[in-house]
């Protein structure tokens, strides 16, 4: 609870550091205050939940049997650059709640909020050495942490390719793993949806944080009968967004994090065009005052086919691929035709359609008439190549604990 108060008191500074470090708009980083503080409160409450059970048994004689919980030990937290201010808490919160220690390896592109948080933890009274930060390159510091025999568990968020490396490295000492990896999430709009909500919802499902979100709804399936009108409204909405200086409170979209990321996103934009998708909006690097930064226009491709590269690979930029469909069966088949399974959404006013999609989408989270909401007590996870190990909720905390059964001979 003391950690909660210290983070609360220093949140303005943390939000500013995050915006300076990774370019997310200041109004967005400031708006994380509630989520971060609620997350800390949630993990604080879980300190009361690290308990075993006394279980009746059928052993011959008089025995008491029970289970106990024990901290798993040292947890390595390898986190990405797209939102360390928030994502570090999945590791720090659960480690503090369970009595583990943590070594956090922030991404080389955005380490500042993690370093400052570590200082604030000391200020809050967390003993030195409980939460540690090691900065450095993934291939050096990250790989060393993943392979270290003194580390008992790795909580990793990042690309699927790196996730595979982490799995291999874990073999050295059977490290427990939690992996939240890439996504290519389907966002499915039916003609009977409330379009006043679905248009901004679908746009921000991708444009938020300039598309640098693992569960971004980048494959936007729109029922064919409304496709044209929907794309028109989407384009209009995209054009209304203010892209610019992250520290300007009126900015809605900041730059991409790095030149490397800009090149990657622009590369996908040209692949989209070459493979025959129609560019409905955006696609350019911003000029004028913003020419020196890694700014790109909110970009919308229409008439995309699910087999095109832009519909298959994770872009991690503000690029929406609109893919038409005729009915719920086709939508479901296309939605699940991906190697990923992190998130998905359906927008409809029909309970029948909603339940069909809710059950049918093979992803760790399905949003209905909303997108991207995450609660620390509910959590989220992945199907298929999007990883394993539930993040959030009691299961997440359980992952930081060993269970032990005890059998006591009473005679
Ligand atoms: P991205 O491509 O989005 O940067 P990465 O998976 O490369 O995603 O990075 C996520 C985190 O994993 C970062 O902190 C990065 O430094 C780290 N990382 C990268 N490569 C490795 C590796 N081989 N072993 C461990 N950590 C790594």
UniProtKB/TrEMBL annotation:
Residues 2-406 form the Aldehyde dehydrogenase domain. Transmembrane segments: none annotated. Keywords: Oxidoreductase. It comes from the Bacteria. Coiled coil: none annotated. One of its GO terms (molecular function) is oxidoreductase activity, acting on the aldehyde or oxo group of donors, NAD or NADP as acceptor. InterPro entries: Ald_DH/histidinol_DH (IPR016161), Ald_DH_C (IPR016163), Ald_DH_CS_GLU (IPR029510), Ald_DH_N (IPR016162), Aldehyde_DH_dom (IPR015590). The active site is at residue 180. Gene3D superfamilies: Aldehyde Dehydrogenase, Chain A, domain 1, Aldehyde Dehydrogenase, Chain A, domain 2. Pfam families: Aldedh. PANTHER family: ALDEHYDE DEHYDROGENASE-RELATED. Belongs to the aldehyde dehydrogenase family. This is Aldehyde dehydrogenase (Acceptor). It comes from Caballeronia temeraria.
């Amino acid at each position: 609870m003391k950690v909660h108060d210290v983070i609360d008191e220093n949140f303005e500074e943390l939000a500013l550091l995050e915006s300076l470090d990774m370019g997310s708009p200041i109004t967005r980083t400031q708006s994380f205050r509630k989520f971060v503080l609620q997350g800390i409160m949630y993990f604080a409450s879980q300190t009361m939940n690290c308990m075993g059970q006394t279980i009746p048994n059928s052993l011959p004689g008089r025995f008491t049997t029970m289970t106990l919980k024990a901290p798993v030990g040292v947890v390595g937290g390898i986190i990405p650059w797209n939102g360390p201010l928030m994502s570090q808490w999945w590791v720090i919160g659960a480690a503090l709640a369970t009595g583990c220690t943590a070594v956090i390896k922030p991404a080389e592109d955005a380490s500042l909020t993690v370093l400052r948080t570590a200082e604030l933890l000391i200020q809050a009274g967390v003993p030195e050495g409980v939460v540690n930060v090691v900065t450095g390159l993934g291939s050096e510091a990250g790989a060393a942490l993943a392979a270290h025999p003194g580390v008992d568990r790795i909580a990793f968020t990042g690309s699927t390719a790196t996730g595979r490396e982490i799995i291999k490295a874990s073999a050295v000492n059977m490290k427990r793993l939690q992996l939240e990896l890439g996504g290519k999430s389907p966002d499915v709009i039916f003609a009977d949806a409330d379009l006043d909500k679905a248009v901004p919802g679908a746009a921000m499902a991708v444009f938020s944080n300039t598309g640098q979100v693992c569960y971004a709804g980048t494959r936007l399936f729109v029922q064919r009968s409304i496709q044209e009108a929907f794309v028109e409204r989407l384009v209009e909405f995209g054009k209304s967004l203010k892209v610019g200086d992250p520290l300007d409170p009126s900015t809605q979209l900041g730059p991409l994090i790095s030149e490397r990321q800009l090149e990657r996103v622009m590369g996908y934009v040209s692949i989209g065009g070459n493979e025959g998708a129609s560019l409905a909006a955006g696609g350019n690097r911003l000029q004028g005052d913003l020419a020196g930064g890694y700014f790109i226009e909110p970009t919308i491709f229409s008439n995309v086919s699910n087999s095109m590269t832009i519909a298959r690979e994770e872009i991690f930029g503000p690029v929406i691929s609109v893919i038409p469909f005729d009915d719920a069966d086709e939508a479901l088949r296309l939605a699940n035709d991906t190697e990923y399974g992190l998130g998905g959404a359906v927008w409809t006013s029909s309970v029948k359609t909603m339940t069909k999609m809710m059950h049918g989408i093979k992803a760790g989270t399905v949003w209905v008439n909303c997108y991207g909401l995450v609660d620390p007590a509910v959590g989220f996870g992945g199907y298929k190549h999007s990883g394993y190990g539930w993040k959030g909720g009691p299961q997440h905390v359980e992952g930081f604990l060993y269970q032990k059964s005890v059998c006591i001979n009473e005679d």
